[in-house]
Design goal:
The structure holds two protein chains of two kinds. Chain A is of the alpha/beta class. Chain A folds into five domains: about 45 residues, no CATH class; about 90 residues, Glutaredoxin; about 220 residues, Rossmann fold, CATH 3.40.50.11540; about 70 residues, Ubiquitin-like (UB roll) (Roll); about 80 residues, de novo design (two linked rop proteins). A six-stranded mixed sheet of chain A has the order 5-11-10-14-12-13. Chain A has a four-stranded mixed sheet with strand order 2-1-3-4. In chain A, strands 8-7-6-9 form a four-stranded parallel sheet, sandwiched between helices. In chain A, a hairpin with a 2-residue loop joins strand 3 and strand 4. Chain A is globular, with a radius of gyration of 24 Å. Chain B is an alpha/beta fold. Chain B folds into three domains: about 70 residues, Ubiquitin-like (UB roll), CATH 3.10.20; about 110 residues, Alpha-Beta Plaits; about 190 residues, NADH:ubiquinone oxidoreductase-like, 20kDa subunit (Rossmann fold, 3-Layer(aba) Sandwich), CATH 3.40.50. Chain B has 14 helices and 19 strands. A five-stranded mixed sheet of chain B has the order 2-1-5-3-4, with helices on both faces. A five-stranded parallel sheet of chain B has the order 13-12-14-16-18, with helices on both faces. In chain B, strands 6-7-10 form a three-stranded antiparallel sheet. The longest helix of chain B has 17 residues. Classes of the chains: A alpha/beta, B alpha/beta. Chains A and B meet through helix 3, helix 18, helix 19, helix 20 and helix 24 of A and helix 2, strand 8, helix 11 and strand 17 of B.
Chain lengths: ~575, ~425
């Protein structure tokens, strides 16, 4: 969509800001003045929106901005060496620009390429499997005036397993439009019945029954409803939606059309995380193609059904994966979670009834239309139906995407991806759960271990403390700051971890974190805060030997360390 | 429109409420108190930022300001678990910001401070962060003190120009978030509106320049409290020796102002009774410099700012069965800890080298083997040793000290009145 000429839509603020960011590498004070005047809002409000998203910059950046992923998987695959190499080759330091104004270096949270780490985005184009040598080649290529397209990596979709014992739901042949042909033969309420019968639940990680959500939205008498595709997969370690959007963007659109048809909406929006902007072209051309062949637009397939889809790009904020934050962001605001007075199905985007579903959910919904619900509901366990995409990364021979049937065990999963000497699995992302050897016989299902998609595997050589510190830093960086427990609590936990690491914390102080975690869980405003302390609370119980090693019996105050500053000051007196 | 009445239950009591109302307002209308900091009136959408009104709704924790009443709603407000969650959040706010109440114009009128009293907070379970935050003097009429801001969002929501444009707006995110001010839009406010903004701020973060808002002691909003009668002092289990011997007490003032000791003397005539029951050992009151025997109780005023404080404190722990931290400085650093947000080097250079009163080439940062060495920060006594009991205040009220000490030494269960517990 183009908005270059008139900028008078408050809801389009993010798009306007992207325009400036892309054109000049930053958003200048005069840009803000201009926007403030045109939109009739104060400049502090615009500054507030800009400073919420970490891909928007207020200071000039170099010709090339390089965002290096600092997730834990990146760390074990050589993040520190790559960081060093980038600094050495570019002459810039992370957080800044080199003297010639060519390169700006920044760290960023997981970019959704965990199967090919270390990875970075150069002007939002991905480069993967980085080695110091490769970094050197890339930078010298760019320095000598080479094009960015030449060094950009063709991203491989490593689909390792397609439910080989049975049959896949998602990774089977995709025939464009098949689901829509079946869809329009049914009445909307029949579509919802079918989705309900299938037992499909939200694949983003919340597992809310999809059919029920759609039914609630359908019941609303509102004339204007929205369908939003949540393509903001920010949970470190997950990349399944990236693969789906790259492999079958059409299936995603068909799922959205299905949702629109079912609830009676005429507009759909894809909220694409900024890290996946390299997929934007592909998705937009698929949308265009859909319009061309009459699967989008007015009177779809000759039926009295209109549906449009547009795409909007986020700007770097994990919390926007939370549906109400996502809606705020779509409205051009800071992406903070709403107070849940109303659910989006009652008052969502622009106060209209809205369904927000994950990319994978829409894909499955389209498949259900294509093959009927039994194909889906015959798979899985008695309570958790169908298959699930897992993004597996870390210490295993075959990182990539696995379409598994619910009900397999952790050990079976480890065998599939050929993981050896596994000591620690962070299951369902840092906000998920901590698994150790004792858990390997448990099953992946709603009855036991539910998983939004991220599976990070660490072998016994990895320092558990490094992993926990990385997760803690992630939540500190990504907390939106709106509510006290998440804003202050995560920061306090980070500080306590530092203290433990220095060997200055007592057992009591280590155990205390668990009660802090409870406060975060009970009182935080959204899912981010509620789940952000799970990893540390669980790790303290699951890795007693790690904490036993560092904990103190009694308080020991390091007096000499506390006196250093004074001695340093008077020494130069 | 017809108002529909719904039946709700709060802590077992039945109430009627108007459908569509938030729980916090419904409770208030029925005379039931649920504490909050960000909520100041019914708005849509509710701010829901501070989370202090967390209660249990049909068994699940949620905030009272964001939930509408419904038929059959069952609310738990004062179970130990919910009370502790709420207390934790307020303690978190104290630890997160830099709240030096004695140096704040809003003291006595501050809603955060008031929550501290009302929840009986004597120390924060969270270590104080002492992050440096800006003080924004740029505007002619509004002083923004970010150290005190609790990011409640009231001003962001409510303070607008006549055209409806925002004067305040959140900047950054996470623990770096703060409220930014639009200086141009701020100019469009009338002085009345500026005063309203300062009044709206639950803490002392928005201060109107050129107008003294400090009220005399006794006239301030929270000086007396008619709603809250008693605050239970923390109970301590003790072996009470029944040999009739006098208990031995030691006291000291570390990095403090001796104000807590002064307050101790305010026990007045009661002191004569006290002396029947206890004897003082090492203490500035007796001028005994060294411990001559094992003491039953050691009372510590002041935080730990230098190496001497550290040694004295260690001595106390060794020689006293029970250690009581007396007053804010001892509990978390207090006023001396104002330097904690700055590097020690900057503080020393400002004090001894660069200040207006220092003369060129004739100044030196004190350093001698006979004088104590300064620590990088002022530490809470609990950072160094185990503390058994906290008596908050700046200074703590004499009656509170006496009741607490009696309680500790002789196991006399007593309640502390709001006025006695109040910190300022």
């Amino acid at each position: 969509m183009e908005y270059t000429t008139i900028r008078n839509e408050r809801t389009q603020l993010l798009n306007y800001l992207w325009e400036f960011q892309d054109k000049n590498g930053y958003i200048s004070t005069s840009d803000i003045r201009k926007l403030s005047k045109e939109l009739g809002i104060s400049w502090i409000e615009i500054e507030g929106v800009i400073s919420f998203y970490h891909f928007f910059k207020r200071k000039p950046t170099g010709k090339y901005t390089i965002y290096l992923n600092n997730s834990m998987v990146s760390e074990i695959k050589g993040f520190h060496k790559i960081k060093e190499a980038f600094e050495k080759e570019t002459g810039a330091f992370f957080g800044g620009t080199d003297p010639t104004g060519t390169f700006s270096l920044f760290e960023t949270s997981c970019v959704g390429l965990s199967d090919q780490e270390p990875a970075a985005l150069i002007n939002f184009m991905p480069v993967v499997n980085l080695t110091p040598k490769k970094v050197k080649e890339i930078i010298s290529h760019l320095k000598s005036g080479g094009k960015i397209d030449d060094i950009q990596d063709e991203i491989e979709d490593l689909i390792r397993y397609k439910n080989d014992k049975g049959e896949p739901v998602l990774f089977r042949e995709y025939k464009l439009g098949d689901s829509i042909l079946n869809l329009v033969k049914k009445r909307p309420d029949e579509v919802i019945e079918e989705v309900k019968d299938s037992g499909l639940s939200g694949r983003g990680g919340a597992f809310f029954p999809t059919g029920m959500k759609w039914e609630f939205a359908r019941r609303s008498p509102s004339m204007q409803k929205y369908v939003i595709c949540n393509a903001d997969e920010g949970e470190p370690g997950t990349f399944k939606d990236r693969v789906l959007l790259n492999q079958m963007p059409g299936l995603v659109l068909e799922g959205m059309i299905t949702g629109g048809y079912a609830i009676g909406a005429t507009k759909g929006i894809i909220y694409l995380r900024a890290e996946y902007r390299f997929l934007k072209k592909k998705i937009e051309s698929t949308i265009k193609h859909f319009y061309k062949i009459g699967l989008l637009g007015q009177n779809i397939l000759g039926k009295n059904f209109d549906f449009d889809i547009s795409l909007m790009s986020g700007a770097g904020a994990y919390v926007c994966g939370e549906e109400t934050s996502l809606i705020e962001s779509l409205e051009g605001k800071r992406g903070g979670p709403r107070t849940k007075v109303y659910f989006p199905i009652e008052k969502g985007y622009l106060e209209h009834p809205t369904i927000v579903n994950n990319v994978e959910t829409f894909c499955v919904a389209a498949r259900i239309m294509e093959f009927r619900s039994e194909i889906f509901s015959s798979k899985g366990t008695s309570k958790t139906k169908g298959t699930k995409l897992l993004s597996i990364s870390g210490d295993c021979k075959k990182p990539g995407i696995y379409e598994i049937e619910w009900g397999i065990t952790i050990q079976e999963m480890l065998n599939l991806c050929e993981a050896k000497d596994t000591n620690y699995i962070q299951f369902s992302g840092p906000s998920g759960t901590v698994l150790t050897k004792k858990d390997f016989n448990r099953t992946i299902s709603g009855e036991d271990l539910i998983c939004g998609g991220s599976v990070m595997i660490f072998n016994s050589k990895r320092d558990v403390f490094d992993i926990l510190t990385n997760f803690s830093n992630f939540f500190i960086a990504e907390s939106c700051g709106l509510c006290t427990p998440c804003r202050a609590g995560n920061y306090l936990i980070g500080k306590r971890l530092e203290k433990i690491r220095k060997g200055e914390a007592t057992y009591e102080e280590i155990e205390e974190i668990k009660s802090w975690g409870k406060v975060l869980r009970d009182t935080s405003r959204c899912g981010l805060g509620k789940t952000s302390s799970n990893f540390i609370v669980e790790a303290i119980d699951k890795f007693p030997e790690v904490f036993k090693k560092v904990g103190l019996k009694d308080k020991e105050f390091n007096l000499s360390a506390a006196l250093n500053d004074y001695y340093d000051t008077v020494k130069n007196n | 429109m017809d108002l529909r009445i719904v039946n709700i239950k709060i802590d077992g009591k039945k109430f009627e409420a108007i459908e569509g109302q938030s729980l916090i307002e419904a409770a208030k209308n029925n005379g039931f108190y649920i504490p909050t900091l960000c909520h100041f009136k019914e708005i849509y959408p509710p701010l829901g930022t501070c989370r202090v009104c967390t209660v249990n709704i049909n068994g699940k924790p949620d905030t009272a300001c964001t939930r509408k009443v419904f038929d059959g709603m069952e609310v738990e407000v004062n179970t130990p678990e919910v009370l502790d969650n709420r207390k934790a959040i307020v303690e978190m706010l104290f630890a997160e910001g830099n709240h030096f109440c004695p140096a704040c114009a809003k003291s006595g009128d501050c809603e955060l401070q008031r929550k501290g009293y009302e929840m009986g907070i004597s120390s924060s379970r969270f270590p104080h962060l002492f992050e440096e935050r800006p003080r924004d003097f740029k505007d002619d009429r509004i002083f923004l003190e970010h150290n005190r801001c609790i990011l409640c969002k009231r001003c962001v929501h409510e303070v607008k120009t006549n055209k409806g444009e925002n004067v305040f707006y959140f900047q950054n995110r996470g623990h770096k978030m703060l409220v930014g001010m639009d200086y141009e839009k701020a100019k469009e406010l009338t002085f009345e509106q500026v005063l309203d903004a300062a009044k709206l701020c639950p803490v002392g973060a928005i201060i109107a320049k050129g107008k003294c808002s400090v009220k005399p002691f006794g006239d301030r909003k929270f000086d007396v409290d008619k709603n809250i009668k008693w605050i239970q002092s923390e109970e301590l289990e003790l072996d009470i020796p029944k040999d009739g011997k006098k208990k031995v007490v030691a006291t000291t003032s570390l990095a403090g102002c001796f104000g807590c000791h002064m307050s101790l003397l305010d026990i007045d005539l009661g002191l004569l009774d006290v002396l029947e029951l206890i004897e003082f050992n090492k203490s500035p009151l007796t001028d005994i410099k060294k411990f001559t025997k094992q003491c039953d109780i050691g009372i510590i005023e002041g935080g730990v700012a230098n190496s001497e404080n550290f040694e004295v404190l260690k001595e106390f722990r060794k020689n006293c069965k029970i250690i009581v931290a007396l007053g804010e400085c001892s509990i978390w650093g207090g006023i001396p800890a104002m330097r904690n947000t700055l590097p020690l080097k900057d503080c020393l250079e400002e004090a001894y080298l660069n200040s207006i009163s220092s003369e060129n080439n004739e100044n030196i940062i004190p350093y001698h083997e006979d004088i104590p060495n300064l620590l990088d920060k002022v530490y809470a006594v609990s950072d160094i040793i185990k503390i058994d009991y906290y008596i908050p205040g700046c200074p703590p009220n004499a009656d509170h000290i006496w009741k607490a000490v009696k309680n500790i030494l002789f196991g006399v269960g007593e309640k502390v009145a709001y006025e006695e517990f109040k910190y300022d």
